[in-house]
From TrEMBL:
<feature type="transmembrane region" description="Helical">
    <location>
        <begin position="69"/>
        <end position="90"/>
    </location>
</feature>
<feature type="transmembrane region" description="Helical">
    <location>
        <begin position="102"/>
        <end position="123"/>
    </location>
</feature>
<dbReference type="Pfam" id="PF06197">
    <property type="entry name" value="DUF998"/>
</dbReference>
<keyword id="KW-1133">Transmembrane helix</keyword>
<feature type="transmembrane region" description="Helical">
    <location>
        <begin position="205"/>
        <end position="222"/>
    </location>
</feature>
<feature type="transmembrane region" description="Helical">
    <location>
        <begin position="21"/>
        <end position="43"/>
    </location>
</feature>
<feature type="transmembrane region" description="Helical">
    <location>
        <begin position="143"/>
        <end position="163"/>
    </location>
</feature>
<protein>
    <submittedName>
        <fullName>DUF998 domain-containing protein</fullName>
    </submittedName>
</protein>
<feature type="transmembrane region" description="Helical">
    <location>
        <begin position="175"/>
        <end position="193"/>
    </location>
</feature>
<keyword id="KW-0812">Transmembrane</keyword>
<dbReference type="InterPro" id="IPR009339">
    <property type="entry name" value="DUF998"/>
</dbReference>
<keyword id="KW-0472">Membrane</keyword>
Length: 228
């Protein structure tokens, strides 16, 4: 007499596609950008007379300032850790729905590089006014920030290719391409204005805003992907 088969319970898509650690990683992709924006806004409010249009974001965490520790470790390091955590969740989630494992891994690595760059920019503060390139800490801060910006722009551009062939992720393809291009344009404008400092801070914030928003939007879409 054949033994009765055990009754299996149906597993929801959310449970199947998004284990707890994966869901936590995707939430990091939402919290990282939110923390970054909040830290910039709050640190600016705590510095009377600070000019967001002309001054660098890094000047909120410059050595000796009243907002140094808050911006360095709350803004740069805090958002960097969260975005690095999101990179792992990005790789695990996208790898399940695409047939491009190496490209998925590369994009995830670039997102992680952005997070690591932010952490480095927080560990190594810039000097007052970010105007002392001969100081090693300033050099490491600038290098870390450059890595963070360029890595995230490259991640957005490569994601345009990565997302294009998947029907569920395809809406993100054009958005990713536009975000990467726009971010690079604002970075170029920032670099071109460094001699005069006219709108340098504005261009930097627009570049950072566009690229960091891309992290938030992709994290939000990947969270919904596991619920459908």
């Amino acid at each position: 007499m054949p033994l009765p088969r055990p009754v299996s319970r149906p597993v929801s898509h959310r449970q199947a596609h998004q284990p707890p650690l994966l869901r936590l990683g995707l939430v990091c992709g939402l919290l990282g950008p939110a923390l970054w924006a909040a830290a910039i806004a709050l640190a600016g409010e705590l510095r009377p007379g600070f000019d967001h249009v002309g001054q660098y974001i890094s000047e909120l965490g410059e050595r000796g300032s009243t907002t140094e520790l808050f911006m360095r470790f709350g803004g740069f390091v805090g958002s960097g850790v969260l975005i690095a955590g999101y990179a792992a969740a990005f790789q695990a989630t996208v790898a399940r729905v695409t047939a491009r494992p190496w490209l998925t891994l590369l994009v995830a690595a670039l997102i992680a590089a952005d997070g690591i760059g932010r952490i480095g920019a927080g560990i190594f503060p810039c000097e007052p006014g970010c105007a002392a390139p001969e100081v090693i800490s300033q050099r490491l801060h600038g290098l870390s920030a450059t890595i963070a910006f360029l890595s995230l722009a490259a991640a957005a551009l490569l994601s345009a290719v990565l997302f294009r062939r998947d029907t569920k992720l395809r809406p993100l393809s054009i958005y990713s391409f536009a975000s990467g291009c726009t971010g690079l344009i604002f970075l170029a404008l920032m670099s071109a204005s460094e001699a005069t400092h006219i709108h340098t801070g504005l261009h930097e914030r627009l570049a950072s805003g566009v690229l960091t928003l891309w992290v938030f939007v992709t994290a939000s879409r990947l969270r919904k992907l596991g619920r459908t």
